[in-house]
Amino acid sequence: MPELPEVEVTRRGVAPHIEGRVVERVLLRRDGLRWPFPPGLAALLEGRRITHTGRRGKYLLIGFGHGTLIVHLGMSGHLRVLPADTEPKKHDHIDLVIQGETGLQALRINDPRRFGAVLWHANDDGELDQHILLRGLGVEPLGDDFSGATLFNATRRRSAPIKQVLLAGDIVVGVGNIYACESLFRAGINPKTPAGRIARGRYDKLAAAIRGILAEAIVQGGSTLRDFLAVNGQSGYFQQTYFVYDRTGVPCRNCGAPIRQIKQGQRSTFYCVNCQR
DNA sequence: AAACTTACCTGGTGGC
DNA sequence: TGCCACCAGGTAAGTT
Fold it and tell me: Which residues 90-129 in chain A have a CB closer than 7 A to strand B?
């Protein structure tokens, strides 16, 4: 379940191995993931140089002179860089074969559940941020224009619970289930509270919590960077200390009350009834 | 029209 | 051991 921090750490992990290098060959072991791969994808990339990498929310961006490869890891996707002749394992769907310093390397996409996506946006198609999957996205939580004011202003007409509004991603991106639960705990806000009923000051606290928790996760992930490169490395979830997530019935680290699990929009929410009001 | 709700895709896992 | 309900994130489709 890669969330924003995992995607960012993945980007940082693979960037030194692929930026500035030419894609020699593209191997596709199936037709698509969530959606079919772009038609002619191999021909589109082979012989072309990767100019840069980027990220928008949980979308990993691999930039070429003529367009951008948009990669989403879905729930179970994983990227690794390994020697190109490494035998592909189950669910290894795509290789971008690149001439590295020590021979041919593959940027390999593995995704058991295939909820991930690989899309192409040509420069001719207009601005990248107007791409159908990117244009509705909220602000970057680690960017300069995210604050309590962002949340407050965007929620005045939102009656849905704050947890679900955060998750929707149209106000701020990259806050998945884990980070939504954890940041609401840190801010002391009950996840069921209608978003439009939360005061400005509490949103300041929530924005700080979101920013802080995501930034900490990226730092934590930095120490696992080499896992993204190891042949057998399955970089699991970052070993962050959770306060509420997946701790149903366990005493709250703050007050000792048992952490409660509820469903909001088919999704599990974990919170402390005592610390979050 | 915007906000909200629900269904769905897949495979690994854990309970029985 | 085998079956099966359950879970996950994000999008599409449907509803208010």
Answer: 90-91, 112-115
